[in-house]
Amino acid sequence: MRRYPAYKDSGVEWLAEVPEGWVMKRLRFAATLNPSKSELADLDRAEEVSFIPMEAVGENGELDTSRTRPIAEVETGYTYLRNGDMTFAKITPCLENGKRAMMRDLIGGIGFGTTELTVLRPRSGQTTTEYLFWLLSSPSFRKIGEAFMYGAGGQKRVPDDFVRDFPVALPPLPEQTAIAAFLDRETAKIDALVAEQRRLIELLREKRQAVISHAVTKGLNPTARMKPSGIDWLGDAPEGWEVRPIKSVAKLAGRIGYRGYTTADIVNEGEGAVTLSPSNIRAGVVSFRESTYISWTKYEESPEIQLAPHDVVMVKTGSTFGEVGYIADSSIPAATINPQLVIFKEIACLPEYLFLSLNAAHLRSCIEVSNTGGTIPTMTQETIGNFRVALPSRPEQQMVVDHVRQATGKLDALTATAETAITLLQERRAALISAAVTGKIDVRHLAPQETEAA
Fold it and tell me: Which PANTHER family does the protein's record reference (predicted)?
């Protein structure tokens, strides 16, 4: 894209040069920070207004205004907003994730929201809500904001002083309008492409699931004689296949009783064994990264749950409830599991075949309805042991495994391509926003297109 004909030094390192004619300001001179709610003094306290909790603000500018409360309930302890304000989340990780929104369609034009929102009201003649939206969408704003956060852990916040003193280069108002319109249009195109790739990924996942489910319940021979399995969700199974409970196919082992560990058993990396948790198992993959480590003494205390190649592991409670992983790699670190997982050992069929069976659609449904937890999904080892799998002969198990590997390998390659495309599109989107609001590209010649589109 074309650049501006002339630039000047901004005096700000990360901004570098900006177009001549753009004015350098601190953000407080372009917008009022956290306006006073005193302007509501004459309103009836029973009047309903929009209520904006953090979950009502999206990472792409979405805003849910469906919640309402009377002013009397929210005027103390909440952040005041009105139509035309620009807000962003100041707390981690919401800031880093880009939660922000323009206030529009508020009930009565007024709202109150979580105190973790910072409010900016454009000053007349200086900037607009739409342009502020894109300024605060810039990767530079979020990245620099992260460096200024204070507090500990999940309570780190961007201070108001950072926002007040944040340097911006403001073009003339007509140019701000042109830039905002350009970004509206171009990011919408990118977002549409990202949505297409995500739909493709979802279709590929559904196809992958169907390939696995059919292979481990109906086999690979379309002309095979079938017989009733005696299980409603399984229907007919090929003749010669056995339908058996998992507890007759494998030994289930997990941390129980005194063998559970406490914080006193946790050590630093390199000083003990990896302990897998629910977050280490996703999409069939067992990851040993970002793990907890326990002392060698505690590790040796429970040899029956020490991980070995060809073990199958399942999450029985926690964030990735029902996820199943297969230890395919022969070279793994010394590792065990925490009480939220269970290991399948002494497997009487091909371990990888059991892994595939546990990922079939019918068993995924059984797992979902077996949740006995409240806010934390949970199922017992006894429940898992009673799940049933359909087992062909050992040679046919190998044929199924080989077939699924080949078929899902192709699907996984297509999925990886789509995921790469999403990453590149998102990088393109971020770069476009940054270039436009810092004047690295000139979009003024595109303004007529915006007018025509309007």
Answer: TYPE I RESTRICTION ENZYME MJAVIII SPECIFICITY SUBUNIT, TYPE-1 RESTRICTION ENZYME ECOKI SPECIFICITY PROTEIN
**How far is 379 from 368, CA to CA, in rounded Å?**
9
Q: What are phi and psi of 293, to 5 degrees?
A: -125, 140
User: What CA–CA distances, in Å, run from 93 to 160, 419, 423?
Assistant: 17, 23, 20
- Alpha carbons 440 and 4: distance in angstroms, whole number: 7
> CA–CA separation, 63 vs 229, rounded Å?
50
Query: Do residues 252 and 396 touch, judged by C-beta distance below 8 A?
Result: no
- Amino acid found at 182: F
Residue 226 is part of a domain; what is its CATH number? Answer: 3.90.220.20
Catalogue the E-assigned strands of 11-60: 17-19, 23-26, 31-33, 48-52
Cα–Cα distances in Å, from 126 out to 20, 118, 151, 160, 310?
Answer: 17, 19, 33, 20, 65
Is 185 domain-assigned? no
pTM of the shown model: 0.82
Per residue in 157-167, pLDDT (tens digit) is 999 999 999 99
- Name the residue with tokens 């059991």: 354
Question: Between 394-437 and 173-218, two packed helices, what is the crossing angle to 10 degrees?
Answer: 180
Q: What is the tally of structural domains in the chain?
A: 2
3-state secondary structure of 424: helix
Residues 6+ apart with CB under 8 A from 46: 70, 71, 72
Tell me which residue has tokens 């990924």: 201
